Predict the structure of Glycosyltransferase family 4 protein.
Amino acid sequence: MKKVAVVCNYILKPNRIGGMDRFFKLFDEQLKEQGFTVDWFFTDYTAFDFYKNLTIYSANNTSVENKFIEVSCNHHYDIIITHFTELCTKFYKDIQTYNPNSYVIAVDHNPRPLEGFSLKKRVKKRLAGILYSKYIHQFIGVSQYTVNHILNDYGTFLKKKTKVIYNGIDTDVFEKRTQENKNKFIVASHLRPSKGIQDLLKALSYLNPKLLENVIVDVYGEGAYKEELQRLTNEYKLQDKVSFKGSSSKLNELFCNYRYMIQPTYMECFSLSILESLSANIPVITTTVGGNLEVIENNKNGYIYAPGDCKALASILENIIIEKDSITENTSDLIEQEYNLEKMVKHHIKLLP
């Protein structure tokens, strides 16, 4: 019986059950159905029911990489899969030291800075690719954008063992929008500067206050930038328009209460929030970064603008509010056909030797 370890630089939270959580759970179920045993390693985890059937090691006060090495000293794994970890580090050499002949798959979800890495960091990554890529048998990017950057960062010589597997979501759990919910907007995002929510607040401040009379913007998520975003909300006198709702494990039921999702991000790999919003038949207003353009088509299932262009975002919002522009197409069909969770899991299962 082959033994699989999945190492994830990811914190499990009962108040945040999202697309990756559902992937982890279904992947575990299907691996076990095929006769594999599976151990999971996460950055932090306190037991809750959603994950009750998974065997989980929590890193707690150390890195998830160190926790895996600690455990693997006494366990042999045939297949090792990483998610959200930095690629081409000494960790991958250590994997082979303690698990010789194991098959290693590295899944890259990590966005890149809009302005790119510094020269020093680019050189460092290229050297890391030369030194440590030989310990990884398969590189997976969650979008074509990600694959392009893996090759750009670590070397084009990795092309033969690098491929795209798009993220997918469980479309069955998302309630569909059935009414207009005019001028209600949702943001679902970690609260940090790179997510660009400060730009949304500035864009709203550009609009005529009369246009905002019936506008509601609900922000779901937590993060260290929350205090600054609340300060800006007060500065722009948007307290009656923008509400910070915190994290929610019920976003699959909440998206349908809105008309559009806004994601003004500066960094993105391939956004599960976008897929989730579209699955609920909620078009998306977002930026041209990362893999966004691989799923959002301007004026068809959303609106696209350049990151940081607050005036362009303000213009999009104004045209929606005055009903000059509107997305009428059902946005959920694309997600159900191309970005569903079963398809994602099936492709990941196919990777296993």
Remarks:
- The chain has a mean pLDDT of 96.
- Residues 171-337 form a domain with the Rossmann fold fold (CATH 3.40.50.2000).
- The CA atoms of residues 127 and 181 lie 52 Å apart.
- The first strand starts at residue 3 and ends at 11.
